Amino acid sequence: MFSSFFTHNHSVPESPPFPYTVKVSTRAKSVRLKMTPHGGLLVVLPVGFNKKHIPDLLHRHEAWIKKAAGRFDQHRPEPLPLTENGLPCTIRFFCLDEEWSVVYNNKGRTVVDVSDASQKRLLLSADVDDADRCRRQLLSWLKRQAASHLIPSFEKLAASHDFKYSEALVWLQHSRWGSCSSGGIITLNTKLLFLPDYLVRYIMIHELCHTVHMNHSKAFWALVSRHDPLWRSNNREMKSAWKYVPPWVSVSP
Ligand SMILES: [Zn+2]
């Protein structure tokens, strides 16, 4: 689906007008600016470009950058409440129509207890001030939720549409929603849990069709359309589907 090429965070002595990430590309013939959903501004440089010119460049393209960033912001849904250090108080899985409240208790234990699951209350036994640790634990809980919900529905979908694959896995990926290897191993992004069900289904169908066509050829899209008549609008909507993923999931570790 989407290729990921976020490299390293770039910092320069003089403060740049916008936070950004740099990628040097052998294929780039000139500088390109790209606004990305999770990584913010991406500056693609041709080989040999002097990085000290970047702040200047950003100043010159300020209007475009602000507009591009604003476009992302206006699509963002109402944010859910967070703790002071950015941890979630509420976790909403759109595709499952499920909402969890997270209760932090700092008794020093390091396991995530899911207590009172019928009330969808997640008790996180870890020091709430240790945001990194809490976040890691929430992410591993998230992966377990994704495995137990996404895999069975993927299996069902594959069987009902008569697709064969060798294995299905969930993985917390930065910017790919799913992938299919030539050996028929399909990976689904944990973040799909936050998307509406029709988009999750579209991604699953998309990856299953890659078991037949390992490309985005006409034949591939024809096959996708047989299994998802609304594929065109779904595919278009996927371009902004990042908006469903809460920030605490997407920040770099
Ligand atoms: Zn694809």
Overview of the molecule:
This protein has 253 residues and is of the alpha/beta class. It folds into two domains: 8-75, no CATH class; 90-250, Zincin-like, CATH 3.30.2010.10. It is 34% helix and 21% strand. The strands form three sheets. It has a four-stranded mixed beta sheet, covered by helices on one side. Strands 5-6-8-7 form a four-stranded mixed beta sheet. The chain has a three-stranded mixed beta sheet with strand order 9-11-10, with helices on one face. The longest helix has 30 residues, at 131-160. Mean pLDDT is 84; it is low at 1-15. The protein binds zinc ion (ZN).
Bound molecules: zinc ion
* Oligomeric state: single chain
Number of domains: 2
Overall average pLDDT = 84
* Low-confidence region ranges: 1-15
CATH topology grouping of the largest domain: Zincin-like
Q: Could you give the distance between the termini?
A: 23 Å
Order of helices and strands: EEEEHHEEEEHEEEHHHH
Strand order, main sheet: write it out. Answer: 1-2-4-3
Question: TL;DR of this structure?
Answer:
The chain has helices spanning 54-60, 62-75, 131-160, 197-209, 218-227, 231-238, 247-250, and strands at 8-9, 20-25, 32-36, 40-46, 90-93, 98-105, 112-113, 121-125, 167-171, 178-180, 185-189.
Name the descriptors.
253 residues, alpha/beta, Zincin-like, four-stranded mixed β-sheet, 7 helices, disordered N terminus, binds zinc ion
What is the fold's blueprint, element by element?
Layout: E1 8-9, E2 20-25, E3 32-36, E4 40-46, H1 54-60, H2 62-75, E5 90-93, E6 98-105, E7 112-113, E8 121-125, H3 131-160, E9 167-171, E10 178-180, E11 185-189, H4 197-209, H5 218-227, H6 231-238, H7 247-250
Parallel strand pairs: 2-4, 6-8, 9-11
Antiparallel strand pairs: 1-2, 3-4, 5-6, 7-8, 10-11
Bound molecules: zinc ion.
